[in-house]
Task: inverse folding
């Protein structure tokens, strides 16, 4: 590889190695990515100082913070639309739409029972969320596992705020024999993605706002069915049409307000509360 030039460097990088014999899929991705990156560098005539800025940005994005305990690389792919593009590319459009997991999922959430409250938030408006988990033929799926997480009524997740107990507004439920699930939570608030780090700085430089509309995250699984990760969004949120992660699709729910005294008593509430329903449809694992 002597006398590397502008005309030969891309092919030299691609051909350096065993050309996919060890890992064919990795090599397929690699041989597409490298030419795209090299073409980008040529197109914008990237300078050494700009390259160093990029390196610094990625180094900073990998640092763990209180706002994003796992670092901002996941957030970056969300903000660039890459995460949602992957979802759209592989969503089979059968069953409930898949959607972003986001950077704040925590495995092994507390196990909860049907009807349990998801977390503690004395200032939030209570929301009773219910529905069923069904197959493509509309038949109920019993014992489906529903893993749910959301921010509180101020738009803050438990891992971002020391005053919240870990596991607050997180939980794992199982559907009953009718495929039904039901739990009590609070109406979540839309929020700004963390803006004190490099991703927030990037949004500011691009003149982009950092807002996400109010939403609740779900992971669902059941034997013989494909796992599903998705989100449902709250109708009326001002940022439904400009989500900074580009992930709002069709899973939008209307909230119904209840304030009659008999309803308050029946639900053990001292102030108006909300209800909504959403059915999840899982596709077989073989599709």
Result:
């Amino acid at each position: 590889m002597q006398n590397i030039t502008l005309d030969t460097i891309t092919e030299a990088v691609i051909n350096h190695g065993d050309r996919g014999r060890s890992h064919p899929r990795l090599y397929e991705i690699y041989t597409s990515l490298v030419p795209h990156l090299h073409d980008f560098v040529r197109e914008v005539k990237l300078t050494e100082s700009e390259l160093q800025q990029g390196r610094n940005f990625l180094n900073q994005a990998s640092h763990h913070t209180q706002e994003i305990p796992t670092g901002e690389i996941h957030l970056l792919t969300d903000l660039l639309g890459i995460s949602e593009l992957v979802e759209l590319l592989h969503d089979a459009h059968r069953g409930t739409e898949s959607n972003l997991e986001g950077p704040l999922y925590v495995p092994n959430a507390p196990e909860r029972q049907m009807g349990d409250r998801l977390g503690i938030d004395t200032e939030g408006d209570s929301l009773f969320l219910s529905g069923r988990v069904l197959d493509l033929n509309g038949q109920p799926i019993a014992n489906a596992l529903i893993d749910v997480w959301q921010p509180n009524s101020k738009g803050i997740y438990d891992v971002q705020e020391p005053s919240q107990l870990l596991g607050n507004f997180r939980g794992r439920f199982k559907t009953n024999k009718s495929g039904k699930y039901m739990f009590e939570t609070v109406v979540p608030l839309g929020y700004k993605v963390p803006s004190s780090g490099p991703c927030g700085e990037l949004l500011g430089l691009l003149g982009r706002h950092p807002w996400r509309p109010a939403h609740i995250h779900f992971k669902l699984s059941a034997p013989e069915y494909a796992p599903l990760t998705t989100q449902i969004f709250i109708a009326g949120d001002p940022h439904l049409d400009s989500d900074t992660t580009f992930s709002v699709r069709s899973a939008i729910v209307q909230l119904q307000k209840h304030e009659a005294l008999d309803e308050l008593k029946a639900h053990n509430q001292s102030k108006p509360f909300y209800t909504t329903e959403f059915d999840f449809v899982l596709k077989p694992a073989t599709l």
